[in-house]
Write a structure and sequence with these properties.
By secondary structure, this protein is α+β, with helices and mostly antiparallel strands. The protein has 12 helices and 7 strands.
């Protein structure tokens, strides 16, 4: 209603472009390129594709996988719309353009039917990623990809082989993304089963902040070396010896077995007593009708006349059972300490991989990607080089996410092996 829009201080402007109603406000990156399409040898469909590609690449820069939808201009993440495209062309010159949602007030979209789509709610990078990224970083990424697109347009059409390579790489990445989504769905179903929830109930992927902080903590040593296990997880995290000691003292299976040893030891003591004569004293009382009550007392001395065949054999059997329980306890201690050591080594090794990727490989891949983009724009490298740099960065980012998942599992396995729950906030 007009009064609702006025109360929200939202102005309404009627324009001539495709896409029906849209919204522009603070927190959006809005681009309205003005180009004579004929000068660049492209039509309006190819122009819209390039605008969408700029937004898709920008979203990918911040870890968000966006995609197109046939017959619906814009970019989408799942069921939500992240960026809108609405252009018009007059006498071969384009105007209007795109709007990319960084951190706008999403409730304002409820006041309209965006682009005439009633089944597609709006979303933003902030809604998908939390507090970050900063709008300035998004605007910079948009500007970089826009400049590349403009440079390619300025020199004419993109070579056909570049288009084919791009399509091939996009298909390959789509396959990887589809595989990752399938794995996430399977993991969610497994988690729902453990939590006794419906298999298809949606679980929001949450990586504990304290686990991420532990995985990405700056190492105390200056380089990655084979002494990683000796150096451990750094200051504040329990050492291997501490974890093994806690496992021996606190693991429920060991505590339960200690009670079994105590019971076996008592059985030996009782069996040994049976080898010696005993003394039994009895006292009875009986009531008789018409006569005095009867009180009886008895003293007996049981003598183990078969001590050599029965009682002594019982002692030997009980002693053997005690020895077997003590041997089993020793084996259990060795098995548990060995398992804790193996899980600890896996945790340290996985953390090394995380740090190698986050502090070394990915920054180098990002620098290579930026260098390839600049060189491609200047015509110093071919499209295959640019595409390979982007694919390398993409693969390394996926590998980092996988290693972070492996690190969380390794930490959980270490806690299971030790039979304890680590308080990471206190331990750190």
């Amino acid at each position: 209603a007009p009064e609702t829009l006025a109360a929200a201080r939202i102005a309404v402007h009627r324009v001539e472009r495709g896409g029906q109603a849209t919204y522009h406000g603070p927190g959006q990156a809005v681009g309205y390129p003005i180009l004579r399409l004929e000068d660049h040898g492209i039509g309006i469909r190819a122009y819209v594709d390039r605008l969408e590609e700029v937004m898709i690449r920008t979203a990918a820069r911040f870890g968000v996988a966006a995609e197109r939808r046939p017959g619906r201009p814009g970019i989408y993440t799942g069921c939500d719309k992240l960026g809108a495209v609405g252009v018009a062309v007059s006498r071969g010159v384009s105007y209007h353009g795109f709007a990319f949602n960084v951190c706008p007030e999403l409730s304002h979209f409820d006041l309209i039917v965006p682009c005439g789509q009633t089944d597609t709610p709006a979303t933003s990078l902030r809604a998908l990623l939390g507090p970050g990224p900063a709008p300035d970083a998004v605007f910079q990424a948009l500007e970089e990809f826009s400049e590349i697109a403009e440079a390619r347009l300025a020199v004419g059409r993109t070579p056909q082989q570049d288009v084919l390579r791009a399509q091939t790489e996009i298909t390959r990445m789509d396959e990887q993304i589809a595989g990752l989504r399938g794995r996430r769905t399977a993991a969610g179903a497994e988690m729902n089963a453990l939590l006794q929830r419906p298999a298809l109930e949606v679980l929001e992927p949450v990586y504990p902040a304290e686990v991420r902080a532990l995985a990405l903590a700056t190492p105390t040593r200056s380089a990655f070396t084979v002494s990683a296990l000796e150096d451990g997880m750094g200051e504040g995290f329990p050492s291997l010896e501490e974890l093994q000691g806690r496992a021996v003292r606190e693991r429920p299976s060991l505590l339960r077995h200690i009670h079994r040893i105590a019971a076996a030891r008592q059985a030996v003591e009782l069996a040994d007593r049976e080898r010696y004569p005993g003394l039994e004293v009895g006292l009875g009382y009986g009531s008789r009708r018409g006569r005095d009550d009867l009180v009886t007392a008895s003293i007996s001395v049981p003598v183990p006349i078969f001590a050599g065949r029965k009682q002594r054999q019982a002692v030997v059997e009980a002693a053997h059972e005690l020895a077997a329980e003590e041997l089993r306890h020793h084996q259990m201690v060795n098995e548990i300490t060995a398992e804790v050591a193996a899980r600890y080594a896996t945790l340290v090794r996985t953390r090394e991989q995380v740090l190698l990727l986050s502090d070394g490989v990915i920054p180098e891949a990002e620098a290579a990607m930026e260098s390839a983009a600049v060189a491609y724009q200047a015509g110093h490298v071919d499209f295959a080089t640019l595409l390979n740099a982007q694919a390398t960065l993409f693969r390394n980012e996926i590998e980092l996410a996988r290693q972070l998942g492996d690190f969380g599992r390794a930490l959980a396995e270490l806690e299971r092996a030790a039979g304890i729950e680590l308080n990471l906030e206190e331990d750190r």
